[in-house]
């Protein structure tokens, strides 16, 4: 029997008409296997923390436990307003796959309830579970791009003609993954606008006061999430100055897309997953306060208009969300006033379109810099790779280590670490690799491409598994390590390592070079963040403060805020490491019984941990330290570790976490 909180989707399928609900399943573990009942009831040490002191707390927790139990069939854990969830809905609808939906209330933080974290340790929607479906493996899948790739692999084409959604040709597939990385980079700048202009409005319309909203939050909710939810309600999650720079970043990204769509209906030569990846995010831009005006972006406007006529695109958006987006796009003042009236707040809506003129002034400068970069790189042999190396980034190390393991030819090009500041999600497409005349950006697609075109003989086995489920698990670990960095590590690493490196790079003798970055096209969106890090190390009353304090002193965090943030992020990192340590019990590798790119990704990311002040203790994390040491016995892994220790050695202390 389907619980009352589950809504069945409509539609039939020629392919999956044989779906049968036969056996009663145990609850799934994070890797899709069945857990014994006693394990699901314990759930580590977290279950003891769920008893809240608020009225109905125990009842609410029981409801969420039931809500996120495994269900038979194909289940999408969804949020109607989530662009990521919408991608999965589009594929499910287009392929006519019957599924049921469990709606996750993001406003109440249900996505970070321990019961949901058993499904997705990153605490995000969507999640897709498959149980008791003939011909398909039982599994728990998270991250929208991973889910759609898995579905396209295991369920044959239905409506896409001769082409699969995900191309099989390595270079065509790499293009798809690069656009998926581009979209991830866009979220660095898009998300603050979504929280300010969409989520905040919804919160204020739903809750008459800040206290009413806070009363719905669990007592064990991590302080980071609690603070973000309440700041969003108050309209203080980002300042107007910060939103100005985020708008610049968004429109710079959109200019890249506008150029790529010139004279084209699709980004590849045919409809692909690229369109399904980009459409939900682009469709939200107007309602988020970042309008895509046809007079400014004619190619993108035409692109979105054509895609709207696809049945799955229209059907994937619930009517309520369609009305809200239309209202926020056309007459946003109405919902804003309604939310402010109900909550008693006076929060205004920010419009990113005010920065368009300044972005277009530097468009030609971007093209000039692209030509200069090609000149600096010089000629790259057809079989050779050129990896852009940033001393504070794990992405280039991951590619280098993969190339070393595959025995491929490559060289590195040293780049300034400043370019990576403020671009956590997939490096926003700034990380770059050349293979002959082919240019690859981002990180996720690069690794798969490198593995596909190197070491095809048996002496150099593929590190990307061919089995669809094993591949999905590897990709989920890659997503896990990137989310670990973006959500938990980046704050401490930037303030302990990057801020000091900025001061080593710029002092009183060349301070003008630092300030000149604000007129450099590469740093239009991130200069504010760069100066915030730089000012975090400037002593009040010093000569440097006299130079910079008037303009940038307001960026400095107070001592109480800084200490609170350090404690909070240390706790979040500890939780991540505890999860990883439990997972690695009795395991030599993250996926299967062989080395995969999942091990490479997580290993390289953890090498930067000491730079945050966190050190892996054998006493605290016995399984994790054994795994790290086992990998370090491999020559190439040891070389990469020594490279990080050399580059960042002065930031590594001997303290244990």
Could you explain how this protein is built, in words?
The chain is an alpha+beta fold. It folds into four domains: 149 residues, Glutaredoxin; 191 residues, Glutathione S-transferase Yfyf (Class Pi), Chain A, domain 2; 90 residues, Glutaredoxin; 184 residues, Glutathione S-transferase Yfyf (Class Pi), Chain A, domain 2 (Up-down Bundle), CATH 1.20.1050. Helices cover 51% and strands 6% of the residues. The chain is built from 26 helices and nine strands. The chain has a five-stranded mixed beta sheet. Strand 8 and strand 9 form a beta hairpin. Helix 6 packs parallel to helix 10. It is globular, with a radius of gyration of 24 Å. The N terminus is likely disordered. One of its GO terms (cellular component) is cytoplasm. Belongs to the GST superfamily. One of its GO terms (molecular function) is glutathione transferase activity.
Short description, anyone?
By secondary structure, the protein is an alpha+beta fold. It is built from 26 helices and nine strands. A five-stranded mixed sheet has the order 1-3-2-4-5. Strands 7-6-8-9 form a four-stranded mixed sheet.
